Amino acid sequence: MRIAVDAMGGDFGPQVTVEGAVKAAQEYQVEVLLVGAEELIKKEFSKHKISENRASIVNAPEAIGMGEGILSFRKKKNSSIRVGARLIKDGQADALVSTGNTAAVVYISKKVLGSLSGVDKPALSLLIPNMKGLTLLLDVGANVDCRPQHLEQFAIMGQIFMENVLELKNPKIGLMSIGEESSKGNELTKEVFEKLKASSLNFIGNVEGKDIYSGKADIIVTDGFIGNVALKVSEGVVETLFYMVRNEVMKNFFAKIGYLLMKRNLKKMYRKVDYSEYGGALLLGLNGVCIIGHGRSNVNAVKHAVRLAKDFVLSKAQDKIQHEMARVFQVGGEAQA
User: Fold this and answer.
1) Any idea what the Cα angle at residue 324 is, between residues 321 and 325, rounded to 5°?
2) Residue 89 CB burial class (10 angstroms; 0-12, 13-18, ≥19)
3) Is the dihedral of CA 157, 141, 69, 149 positive or negative?
4) What pTM value is reported for the model?
5) Tens of pLDDT along 88-144?
6) Which CATH architecture has domain 123-275?
7) 266, 73 Cβ separation under 8 angstroms
8) What are the residue ranges of helices labelled H in 1-101?
């Protein structure tokens, strides 16, 4: 299996992406293709010992910065993101992992690879731990402006994903809103509510932000603007909470003793909510496997993003989703009754 890694992506570039990709290649027994500026990658690559059949460099002389816009996406034909996507299209890679500019990865991968039949907008989907298991939240940042049919498609894709990848039959689907009542929300959520209510999906109604972690719904559907804000707020709360715990512990001798006794369990709990452990989000609905990681991903996050890509390829979920999408959708993206 070959996983293309955008070595120029993220806030730290090759220094982090190369090390994370190399560790993934060694630990998960995959071949990584490091895509980016050859000389910069070689400099980092030389610091690690790895067999030649586990890692190689694919030169891409251009890179798209985190703050660049659509003109750069179009103009830079040899960017690391575009070259990585072409590797999938040409059959030279099974998946792409990037911690770079999210908008660029979404735009370019869709242009190069296309969407699955019946999908207007691929959605960034993320499995989040809850009190009972896992919740699939989508979209978490790919589409900030959505129409009702897009959220309906997200719900259907989410159901197919959960049934075929997590083997969860008839998953419960919730719609993110500002209240549980059907009358709550904006015009988008109200219209989506009616669409999902009339569908054959196991729609349980509106859910609130707190329900991301309650386990009330197996799938929560929202537009990328709300989803991304919810995700970033959650990450901020987790980091702030653990920072406050550490500070309070240092103020009291007996608290330090309690911390030492609980340290192992606290680490286990932190790993469950640490973004670097889940690696990245899957761009669901794309005609290819693409994992988009956090811009500030560390080595561990890059490593786990490669692992996530490998797991998704091995599950053959892409083929299952394509088959189900073709069955569920008619030409033009309208769901069958």
Assistant:
1) 80
2) middle
3) positive
4) 0.84
5) 999 999 999 999 999 999 999 999 999 888 888 899 998 888 888 889 999 998 888
6) 3-Layer(aba) Sandwich (3.40)
7) no
8) 14-28, 38-45, 70-75, 80-89
